């Protein structure tokens, strides 16, 4: 049977001391590529060492977090690093881009929504339990009221605007008070 060959098995083994030194340089502000070049190891070899040693992976994660804080400080105090305003603007944009990609939940401009957030469901459950604890409260389904619209005929005396001193209508255009309600008469006169 043929032995399966992976990329990690073909890489030269990186000594733990060099991998730790790379993590320390990253924590000081270097990129992983720069730190690996300074210690004459490949980035792929360093990544393989991270996969083999969980403690080294933790050190790398912490180093990246510290480096991001250094970048954030550089961003806040960009005038200390670049006197040319145009160059400072370019460097600031680059640092912002790197920070947003490395830690979007901390440095990103967008709100990161956790898909596992169950706050709404938990709040609804808590409210339902609170309603159930109210003495004498009816369940919610019994509180629903039917509000179907039913037109009820209105029994109002007919309004004759000619007698009350209002606008007079010519008799041929005057609506019959027995056929129209007062509201309809006011609408016909343009008062509503």
Explain what you see.
This protein has 10 helices and no strands. It is mostly helical and 192 residues long. It has a domain at 7-107: Homeodomain-like (Arc Repressor Mutant, subunit A, Orthogonal Bundle), CATH 1.10.10.60.
Quick structural summary:
This protein is an all-alpha fold and 192 residues long.
In CATH, the architecture of the domain at 7-107 is Orthogonal Bundle
Number of helices: 10
CATH superfamily of the domain at 7-107: Homeodomain-like
Q: Indicate the low-confidence ranges by residue numbers.
A: none
Can you summarize the main beta sheet? none
Give the mean pLDDT. 76
Q: How much of the sequence is in beta strands?
A: under 5%
Q: Provide the CATH topology of the domain at 7-107.
A: Arc Repressor Mutant, subunit A
Tell me the span between the first and last alpha carbons: 95 Å
Shape: elongated
Percent helix, as a range, is 40-55%
Radius of gyration: 39 Å
**Total beta-strand segments:** 0
Assigned CATH class of the domain at 7-107: Mainly Alpha
Order of helices and strands: HHHHHHHHHH
What class, by secondary structure content?
A: mainly alpha
